[in-house]
Amino acid sequence: MSTQEKREALTTNPRENYQVESMAMKKIEGMYNWTDVDVRNLDQFPNGFKDIFEGKLDGFLIRGVLSEAELQVFKNNFPTWKTEDRTAMPFGEYYGKKVNTTEGNFQLLKLEDYFSMSDKFRTELKEVFEIDIERRIMETIGAVAQSCRVVVPRNDTNQSFIPASIRVCYPYKGAIGAHVGNDFNYKMPEIILLDEIAKLEGQLSFFILVEQPDAGGELALFDLVWPKSPESVVGAEQLSNEERNDVLENLKTMNIQPRAGDMILFAGGRIWHRVKDVEGENNRTTIGGFATLSKDEKEIIMWG
Fold this sequence. Notes:
Number of domains: 1
Mean pLDDT: 87
Low-confidence stretches: 1-22
Largest sheet: 11 strands, mixed
CATH superfamily: q2cbj1_9rhob like domain
CATH topology: Jelly Rolls
Distance between the termini: 30 Å
CATH architecture: Sandwich
Helix content: 10-25%
Radius of gyration: 18 Å
C-alpha cells in the first residue's frame, strides 16, 4: 500500500481505548504506558497527544510513517547533502543548528545562528527526502491531536524555527546521553523564546528512524520523571555527560526499538531517557524534534 493510500485509508471513527490489542495495535510491556500502533490506526487515538501531555499515556510507537521506497530515496540522497547546518558531535553528526563545539552543547547557541539558515534548511529537508517530510510529520502528529493545527512557529522578525533536526549516531561512539526535555526549557535560548506562546513544561519529543543500525540504538526510558530529579542530574552544565549517565544507569529502564520508517512520539519532557550505543556497521539516523500545546491549546507548536 502506498503512503497516499495509507492516508486515504484513515477513517473518522475515534475510539479512546488504550487497552485494545490487535495486529495493528498493542500495548508495549514495561513500566510506562506505551502503545504500538500502525500509522493507519492513529484515528483510534484522536486525543493521544493531549493524553501524553497530561500523563494519561506515555508514548506511541507509530509503525510505517515512511515507506521502504521513501527511506531508500533518503538513503541515496543523504551522503551527498552539503548543508551548512551540520556539526560534528561526540556521538556522530547533528544537522539543523549550530553547536558550540568549544563548550560541547547547545546552551550557548546564539539565536541569530539558530535562525540564520532555518528557512533554507527547511527547503533542504524536502530536497533530501524528495517529499515534504515536514508535512508528513505534521500529519502524523495531527492525527492524534485532531482538534489542533500543527504549526512551526516564527520569531518576531518572521524568521522560522527549525521544524526538526537530523541526528546521526555512529557505531561505538556512546550514542546520545541521558537527558529530559523539561531541562532544556531553562537552558536553550530558542526554547526559552517559545515561552510566551507555548506550554513548555511537559513538551513531547518525536523522531522517525530513517536509518536502522545493525544492533543497539534503542530508546532507553529511565525510571525517573521530572521534577523528581536529583541535583546530580539536573545541576550538570552539560546536557549529556558521563557523570549524568552513570547516575541514571543504576535505574530500571524500559527500551523502545523502532524499525526504519517508524516514528516515536513520547513524553520526553518529563521522562529521563537516552539513546543506547550503536553497534555494527550501520549508523542510526533519525529526524526529530519537540512538540507541545500552545497556551490556548488550539495549536501544536513543533520545533527542532
